[in-house]
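Late entry, evening session. Most of the bench is empty. Finally got around to the prediction I had been postponing all week. Sequence below, unchanged from the version circulated by S.P.
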Amino acid sequence: MNRPFRELSVAAALLLVLAALAVFAPSFYQPQPLLSLLTREAPTLLVAGGMALVIITRQIDISVGSQFAVCSVAAGLLATRMPPALALAASVGLGAALGAVNGLLVAGLKLPSIVVTLATMVTWREALRWQQQGAFVNLPDGLQWFGLGQLPGQWTLIAVALAVFVALGLATRHLAAGRHLYAVGSDAEAARLAGLRPERVTFGVFVFLGALTGLAALLNVVQSPQVDPKSGTGLELKAIAAVVVGGVAISGGRGRLGGVFAGLLLLACIAPALTHLHVEAYWEKAIQGAIILLAVVADGVRSRKSGGQP
């Protein structure tokens, strides 16, 4: 099963879900609910894009949910003490710094990324819980100019997320830095012999994912008058699921961001579809799990047929 076929399969599944909703639940297509759905998923799209780059290099980061929460709370606290623009910029910088910690441990000390990011996930989350004690952060009124209730703001959020995501997709296909990611993910030693620095590439993608997570936190903060310190819970699983379902091989070195976009939309449509079709909500996770399992099995079958080659 090659990559274009996987991407087309995901797109076909998404169209099938949308067609079923058009027939059985036409109310799903009311403009405001659809726009709200896209606005809610805008931050996840950024994180999924960064996660795709990390997985292409044969790494993984399960700490992005905690990074998202830390950046959101930090941006909210800083916004009460300094101009909002500086506070929001600090969110991106803090995300990059948290990603750099993961990158140093993984690329510098050669530690397994799953272990490193599991540790940092717990560390950031528990540190935030200790600092906030579960208290929400009240944001200044001027920070909600992108708010969910404002139509131009919703379109702006969606446009920012799409612009960054499209830029990432073009960069991975047309820039040398993008090709380096695939080279390192396919065979790090061969990439080294070709003159690349796999450690530098690995460190860079973790920093970049952290920065994108900080930007995603920014897009989340400006939608609400308060910041929940538990925000970001489950974000890592949703981002990884979108990447895997979208055709990026969990073994690294293969996949494109176009499939990730379709995969995220497919997963995002499941919950609203179940609601409109009057199906019990607990089926959502079961259906998502089945979709992810099918995607992983498809990768395994393809790898066996190709003799384990990328």
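Two things to note before I forget:
The two ends are 12 Å apart (CA to CA).
The mean pLDDT is 87.
Will write this up properly tomorrow.
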